[in-house]
Amino acid sequence: MAHRLKTPEGRNLYALRKQTPEPVFGIIKAVLGFRQFLLRGFDNVRGEWNLVTMAYNVKRLFAFAGAA
Question: What pLDDT is attached to residue 15?
Answer without folding.
Answer: 86
